[in-house]
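Sample entry follows:

:::
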Amino acid sequence: MSFQLNRLLYPRFKTRQWKVTVFGLYREILKLHLKRLPDTQRYLGDSYVKQEFRLNKTANEEQAVEFVTQWKDYADILKNEQNIDDVGQEIDPDIINELSDEQKAQLEQLKIESEKFREKVMELSQDPTKNS
């Protein structure tokens, strides 16, 4: 979806209504995490959401609209997914091509950290006596 089309879906940027919309989305995602995610995934997800929303405060209008659109899509996935273990999808290569080098590096780092986290959760679920 283009920026111009997305722009029509939300209140004017940097207005009080815009802030209410973004904060409402933030709260909705945290509530969905509480209802739908296991504790370990919720902890990681909540930390990531809080960090991303904090960083987005300095975004320009185009970045902010895209940010809200992507997080709204994520919230919709969480709301509609029947089996929470199946949540996730591949990122469209066109979207990856539009990312800056810094964003690509952040995405790669997120992938590495989430894989480490998943391995640790799997290890703990197989042997709950391990706590390191």
